[in-house]
Amino acid sequence: MGYLQSVKESLLKNSSLADEIFFQAVFEVLDSLEPILQSDRIYEELAILERLVVPDREFKFKITWFDDNNKVNVNNGYRVQFNNALGPYKGGLRFHPSVNSSILKFLGFEQIFKNSLTGLMMGGAKGGSDFNPKGKSNSEVMKFCKAYMTELHKHIGPRVDIPAGDIGVGAREIGFLFGEYKKITSRYEGIITGKPYMFGGSLLRPEATGYGVVYFTDELLKLENKEPLKDKICCVSGSGNVAIYTIEKLQSFGAIVVSCSDSRGTIYDSRGLDVVLLKELKFNKRASLEEYINTHTSAIYTKVEDYPSGAHEVWSIPCYGAFPCATQNELNINDATNLIDNGCQIVVEGANMPSSPEAIELFLKQKITFAPAKAANAGGVAVSNFEMSQNAALQRWDMDKVDESLRTTMKQICKRVYLTSKDYGVDGNYVDGANIAAFKRVAEAMIAEGI
Ligand code: NDP
Questions:
Q1: Which residue, by CA, sits nearest to atom 42 of ligand 1?
Q2: Has 126 been annotated as catalytic?
Q3: What domains can be seen in the chain, in order of their start residue?
Q4: Annotated catalytic residue, options 8, 90, 114, 126
């Protein structure tokens, strides 16, 4: 049995079936690594894969908090510190009812490779809770965040582990988390990124993931000699932080973004989405996208229950570029088929692992340009790293410096992935290119640091 196969089998033997989504992420990476594993036996000799697929440590804890009716609520809290070969553990917090240990292990594992691709000094981690911020009052969200930090603060630190936001964790939640850390420890230090600007956040951190997705796309289209985004029809799923800033930057490149979605439905606006209204609805009012048609009466809203069978409405709309920016496994084989049949030329992942393995296989087979999340959405964590630098020096960077550094980082990631796919004989396969380039850097650090 080959090295790869034996690592997969031992992982399956020692983990539970509930780890399905974690296996999906791990196997996608492992399946890319054959060419590099064959080039040097040292990876097998030093058990690099076996060491990479198991987190350094996982914390699971109980969070108790009072709601507005003085009822005691109990949630599960987690932090998975996966690998710190390249720098302190780094990765977001997700508050969503679907959160469990498998989802966080998948996200933490992905984060190791994403952070490696940035070329910066960051290891991989992820955390969160099954708490649902939706429908909670401000005071309930605050009480929950503070209770969560009561435990989390024991495990983090500016040179140890630096969380950030993710689904359900935006500037409001990060402010409460940071405030509690300071109260418990009396220390002002950069233990979390994505902070509001007034107390240490970086300019452009909210925009960074979405803007980075578009900088990456622009560079990849250039490298592939494909037509640029100007005047091209694009579709984006989601309407949260990543989606909205992807839409905003696509528009600034001259693209016409006609569709986006939320967990309840999809908007189609053939004249191009009104991003100011989207921000008002989703960031300020936390409302449903359905309200978009109150202002733009010619736009069409389709509810989830009316989607085409086995597919998502947003991917049935003809477009040049598709940008899944909502959540994992939201673009399936039927969606991939629809996109290809409708002439889509490029798919760039803004969310983490939004495309199913079957959808990715089809894109690659049909030679659709496909940019995987760990490369394309690394802009957020890159600017988080810039925030850490600013905090450590108690200084601020201006907008131009952050934007220029973000753009340069995304270009470098894109080139690294593009060239690696050529160097390892998988030309145009950026899934393999990203996995190999990211693995190489982490593995080299693990080898240099010894057992
Ligand atoms: P947000 O919570 O801000 O937004 C998530 C959006 O996705 C919401 O609009 C939500 O709808 C929508 N959504 C959730 N589930 C579905 C679904 N099944 N179908 C359609 N829409 C859905 O999260 P972020 O924008 O921060 O994160 C989105 C993705 O990007 C995640 O995969 C995250 O891990 C990844 N990511 C985020 C980074 C960041 O900097 N924030 C960095 C790198 C990756 P509703 O409004 O109804 O809840």
A1: 380
A2: yes
A3: 60-188 (3.40.50.10860), 208-376 (3.40.50.720)
A4: 126
